[in-house]
Amino acid sequence: MAEDPIRFGILGCADIARKVSRAIKLSPNATLFAVGSRSIEKAKKFAADNAFPPSAKVYGSYEEVLDDPDVDAVYVPLPTRLHLRWAVLAAEKKKHLLLEKPVAPSVLEFDQIAAACEANGVQFMDGTMWMHHPRTAKMKEFVSDPQRFGQLKSIQSFFTFAADPDFLKNDIRVRPDLDALGVLGDAGWYCVRSILWAADFELPKTVIASRGPVFNEAGVLLSCSASLHWEEGKVATFHCSFLSNLTMNVTAVGTKGTLHLRDFVIPFEEDKASFSAATESCFKELVTGWQSLPSEHTVMTDLPQEARMVSEFSRLAKGIKESGLKPDPKWPTMSRKTQLILDAVKASIEKGFEAVEIVS
Amino acid sequence: MAEDPIRFGILGCADIARKVSRAIKLSPNATLFAVGSRSIEKAKKFAADNAFPPSAKVYGSYEEVLDDPDVDAVYVPLPTRLHLRWAVLAAEKKKHLLLEKPVAPSVLEFDQIAAACEANGVQFMDGTMWMHHPRTAKMKEFVSDPQRFGQLKSIQSFFTFAADPDFLKNDIRVRPDLDALGVLGDAGWYCVRSILWAADFELPKTVIASRGPVFNEAGVLLSCSASLHWEEGKVATFHCSFLSNLTMNVTAVGTKGTLHLRDFVIPFEEDKASFSAATESCFKELVTGWQSLPSEHTVMTDLPQEARMVSEFSRLAKGIKESGLKPDPKWPTMSRKTQLILDAVKASIEKGFEAVEIVS
Lengths: 360, 360
Hints:
By secondary structure, chain A is α/β, with parallel strands linked by helices. In chain A, about 35% of the residues lie in helices and about 25% in strands. The first copy, chain A, has helices at about 15-25, 40-50, 60-65, 85-90, 105-120, 135-145, 165-170, 185-200, 305-325, 330-350, and strands at about 5-10, 30-35, 55-60, 75, 95-100, 125, 150-160, 205-210, 215, 220-230, 235-240, 245, 250-255, 255-260, 270-280, 295-300, 355.
């Protein structure tokens, strides 16, 4: 472990916090320092189950974590409806903020969180782990290459999984008082992020939700689709659902090349991940087959993508803490753009699938 | 070769007719019997270049092919605008009809062709070759299996290729007087067919074209997208384009399984083709990877898919000719449904991306 690792406090004992606790443990510049839950018993059990060091602080409230002067950064996996309150308070307490997605129920609330982080000079980052996989950087090289990929023309992103009946009724992600965006804020967040990532975070002009979204009894989205439109015919579509077999395909097509992968959010295996790249694909004479087949590229990683996320976040936090650097605005900007598109999809559904203009 | 193979006449010397001539040659129950072109010289050259037998008839007009009493069946690769005239005349001359796609500029014209075939007792089939690959039958088993695939929820189909500037201006497929449907009738035909195929040819309720279609100077489509909507949230999207790298991905997701392939129209290789199938995919503990990876399935074929198409068509034609069987209505029904969706996409574009109800 590096000297003076970033000391993490965790707010709440959400299931995803187990994965991120392991990531903090694996990250060379971060350490598990505190956990807080509304129940001290739950916090104690969480610390024990997740191999927190004996010195770790265990608190019976979120406030105590934020009041601990030795906590450098917090990871907040609370239900989205609680983000505004706890994320703003964390920033005000000068804690760097690693916030789970969706970052807020709406961009209006996110802007308050981002403003609090900016005013208090703390780093903001959302929990989109795949952004930090070295495969993502390799894919970016490919889609940015005018010779191999050319100009982006269309993107299709798919993230579905089959939730069980209990999840569809009771999970945090389908409760209007906790995560009102439903599948759109969960699986849809990743689809939208992958589209923006491929489009170099250029916002589309228009977003249109597709007909036929599926809701649960409480009115929360379980399945939906939408299309994003830029000028000159560049188009993206995505489909997210809690009602279909686990699938996470992205296809991005440029004038000269094609990127394709089938495990963009969670790679099939932890230590490596692949993507398929094709350039100037064409047919054989008489169109009896292909002349240039897509090639598979495998990228190894020494750390799981979530540990790389923690490391990058901690690197930025350390720069601020130790060298007086400014927070990197790249991460909150990406979060905001993603949230902006989610809001537009939701608005389009509410307006009967009308086109919604994007104003950044 | 089987006894009494079906004797084919070919109308015109289109580029695709070279591939189909080879397919007729490879097919055990079919034979190259005649070719007609408006130029006898072109017809002669075509027959010589494509290894027609010395006994083959070479005509300086399409009419002469249709008037030849020894021609059993015709393959018609003429521009779509000419289909009505020549397909109806072929049926009236009692020739079984293998017609290139798109089958007509509109379903209204197609219905006249289908009616002529029915009235004259001849078999109709369109030239959608991939329907005849043994891979397609294997994939159908998978998507029909309630245990491995479950109920179909969403489909995404992509067919794009990068045409050169000359094609974009002058090719038959982008000339309003010849193939007014442009990319929609060409690449889009295959996308729509793949969607209907996955949906067991159940027609959607609604079709909506996406914003941002691209046209050439003559007003013919070069790139477009659309979505198809059934009840209960089942949704399909497709994207077809002459402006992007060659890509042909289909993803179909059911409640229990996922089908994926990347060469659905033209398999990468001629003698075999693969698809990926996943069932009840799920994550490992802590969501650090997948527990059940998609598996690759490779299907060998003794004949290229286009030769299997010719064989199936010839088998049906022989049944009518030799055993007094009725034409198989399955093939014109699939053609009609495909055309109906193309018409709806076109209408939706013309109406400013309004939803178009499908009335079969």
